[in-house]
Amino acid sequence: MDNNCSTTNEIRLGVSTLIISNNILNKISKPLFDSIVNEMDFKTFFRFGSSVCKHLRSLFFYSNRWRVMDLSFMVEAQDKVIYRLCSILNQYFNNNNFNFIDRISENNNETNDNNHNEDDEDNENNNNNNEIVENSNNETTENNNNNDHHNNIIIIKENKKNKKTRIFHSFYIETLIMDKLYKITSNVFKYINNCVAMSNIENLSINDCLSIKFFNGFFETPHQRKIVSLSLPTFISSEPPNYFKKLGSLTSLNLPGTVESIQLYKYLESCPLLTKLMLSYRSKDSLFNPSLLEKLYKCKQITHLTLVNMIIRNDIFISLFMSLTNLQVINIYNNFQITGGAINTALESMPNLRELSIDFCRNVGNINVHSETLKTFRSSYTLTCPEISFPNLNDLSIIDWNITKDNCFSIFSKLNKLKFLNISKTKIDDEVLENVLSLVGEGLETLNLSSNQITDKSIDIILNHCKTLCKVYLNNTLISTEKANELYKLKNLYVIKIN
């Protein structure tokens, strides 16, 4: 049973209402429109561009949804699909399909919406040709002579009808996600570079784009790209990468573990502003040779480190944690060599550490260093660590720990600020749950008790200790659906999941 207010269904209902009811369409505000379309994929969002309703089409062009374009749902897409998309976007740009608000009433949504309707009448002729169709004859237009689009600026124009100054807001795309589009090739960068709406991309993600062999083409633009975040696949090409010198503004880098050591060295050397480094999946050997480690130790500016399924020795972890003392977020997933000693080193060395995730690091145990700064601790499928001491923790996930009536006080007695607790698969029964919630239940908002030997008695325990609970997960327990429904006595509860 999932009583999650059916958020997805509500969104679909809202979309249907928008498409069908012109009366509502003419009254809908921009914030409401954006809240709906932000939950859509771009295929659904694009339907609004061909709407017969002028007001809806106006909201479409003015929407904040353009800032993030996630195309990862088009797994089978080929180069021609990206070509057509870029052509359509250039059509919109060339036909001046901008939306605006009065400078005078910039913060007045109601006035803005009325102005949308009024000025759509004036622009009707320009908008007639902007229906979204897949026309193979569309050509991607290169607008190198227009400097405005490089800076994502607001364009000021004069409205001749009422002599007011208007502010036209661009829809330039800041984030482009094409993850898992395994058929697209490096040719798509040519189309992207010639698309005005994509001229100011700051964040690019092309994970698992297996047919992209090289990346140089993305930077072959008349203006210099200022890339802030990159998430890249493994490039298999004899072409030497020449884009390293263009990464001076990069702050976030996500690479596959199959990257060569010399390449990662060049990335680190070329990105003095890098604060987030993510490496994933390397099982054949260790990526970190002595020269690379020496370079990484000097990257004191790094605050977020993610290492997923990487072969790294415990002594290297200790050296990293002693060197990168400004780390605030550590995420290490599925490493069998790291131990509790390395984690204790991290807790001792990093005064600003606030998130620590070590899921599936099965040899980690004996974490006993006190931390006042840690807010999130995820240690699922590790050894049970009854001596943790994180008094300001608000998010704890310890799936598969062995929680008993003998160690639950030691684990939870110092965690009275918890809001999110996941203790699924921890072998607890009603008695142990009573002990746990008597210590941490008061402020809990989300509680996951799935796959435990708890019965209907636990519902009364939850009602007694968890007055602020919003979500509870009771899958694979001995609790009946009828008894679980009693939890709706809690005034804030809106999600119960049970089967």
From TrEMBL:
Comp. bias (Low complexity): 125-149
PROSITE patterns cross-referenced by the UniProt entry: LRR (PS51450)
Taxonomic lineage of the native organism: Eukaryota, Amoebozoa, Evosea, Eumycetozoa, Dictyostelia
The name this protein goes by in its record: Leucine-rich repeat-containing protein
Region (Disordered): 109-149
Species per Swiss-Prot/TrEMBL record: Dictyostelium discoideum
Superkingdom, natural source: Eukaryota
UniProt GO cellular component terms: cytoplasm
